[in-house]
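Hey all, sorry for the wall of text incoming. These are the two entities for the joint prediction.
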Amino acid sequence: MTDTVQIVLARRPAGDVTADCFREETVDLGAPAEGQILIRSRYLSLDPYMRPRMTELRSYTPPFELDKPLTGGSVGEVVESRNPKFAKGDVVMGMLNWATHTLHDGRGLRRIDPSVAPLSAHLGVLGMPSFTAWYGMKHICKPNAGETVFVSAATGAVGQVAGQLAKLAGARTVGCAGGEEKCAWAVREAGYDACFDHKAERDAGAVLDTLCPQGIDADFENVGGRIFHAVFERMNNFGRIAFCGAISEYQDQTPMAGPTKMFTIVQRRLTIQGFIVSDHVALMGDFVNEVGALVKSGQLKARETVVDGLGKAPSAFMGLLRGENFGKLVVKVA
Amino acid sequence: MTDTVQIVLARRPAGDVTADCFREETVDLGAPAEGQILIRSRYLSLDPYMRPRMTELRSYTPPFELDKPLTGGSVGEVVESRNPKFAKGDVVMGMLNWATHTLHDGRGLRRIDPSVAPLSAHLGVLGMPSFTAWYGMKHICKPNAGETVFVSAATGAVGQVAGQLAKLAGARTVGCAGGEEKCAWAVREAGYDACFDHKAERDAGAVLDTLCPQGIDADFENVGGRIFHAVFERMNNFGRIAFCGAISEYQDQTPMAGPTKMFTIVQRRLTIQGFIVSDHVALMGDFVNEVGALVKSGQLKARETVVDGLGKAPSAFMGLLRGENFGKLVVKVA
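and here's what came out:
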């Protein structure tokens, strides 16, 4: 008998996610059946894409189910196994419940070597957010030396890696983030040429004109909304927009209109490409080789925020949607 | 001495193009200087892209100059040559003035064989509009058999070819056009599976739901605006949008907002690519081979509207912007 604490979706949010969308409960998972393993979660990743999953949208991942635990990328330890592919003590990564323990059939789980890096890094700079940044930058933005790249959410889990990869490619790299502290870190630690505080600047266009005097050749877009519209207007001929997320829209109840003058796409021969990194798992090996080496050599830095205790996951997630985290947000479950 | 009738840009339009934007005048061009040729225009192509050029926009082609003749793709005959590359009697294609005669240095002109096809075809199904359709369909839309392709302005100079190429690729091909006559032609002659009259249908979304029950995999976009927004909402995963023009925006004085929910681009992993065919002249040979063969074999049909007399070019152009032409619009100059 395993007493498991888990967080379930109590109701779907309408607009802002509120505390009553979640319910913490304690259940007895029972013992693993044949083929199953029992995993104790160590770290849970909180990511913006979870917000659309809370709603019944036609989205790329099925919506979370009501009264069932939410799930998320996690690192955990096998505590009991009736699956020949996993042994007690294995450290694994994959989609687990927002819970202290998950019963799992093992599909989609990957064993990781805990000596390579801190466990939480597998959810950040060596994990999905970083893979997302790498794919979008390398396969869509494709910055050339001397070009200008813009990264919205410059210090987020994805953005911080995207910006550093752009910089390593020799591009002038400009971002925006929420608050002075993040902007200062972006420039000082992540090597951005400039980063502006979107909370303080109301006229994004004017700031972009100053910071990107040669226009913008590639945009790594995580946010959408008014700053995206200002970026869109300033794209250069043959510009590329890697559309990775639109966090500014996730809690909007009235759908937001896109940028004006869609003809700009023709005039400037823009390519706008939406992507989801799970479509590109075949490239995971390339990513691990390239980015792993950059992390090892210290050329790629990563900032994370660790929240202590599963019970804080809901409030931390609500904070994430308000941009309160700094870098990759993970919950230390146990 | 050559008395030339030409049409100059008298003023830049604000909103709808009006007759007073043009002025017809008779000038004496004089004799060709060394290196020049004098060309008598036979056919002048009228195309939507000319509208942005009438305004002082940052666009892909420089704006027309005030009090100078407008220019356009034309077929003409060399009547006098002081350029060793061209002889009297040569039939040439290229950018000429909206005029009975143009003095030209020969750069960018191409000699054509008048026995291959009617002269006006070089401005339509064997020319730039058709090349545009071919490029966008083949290199961006890339329809697979069984997919659904939507073509706005289905019977326009570009759209009619785009739709037929989609159909030849085995796609369900749906379009819209202005008026019953065009829609009937699209289905009967151009082989569209369905074509709806955007002037009669106010609820484009409902019509698209009926005509494209499997959603839309590729959109060849010439128009923009409300129908584009409805198409955008119905794009399938991994959908492609070849953005070729946005005629609905050209005369707008208040910029039009883009489609709502830009996050759709991420959710459905859409690729939206703007293009201008003049960037791809290196592929002109491939186009001529492929499309020339389809025209010759009768697999590709083309409809054109011929307006008789240069003096009618302004009113025909204004009609084009209102969608009054049917197929490729050309002016028979002489």
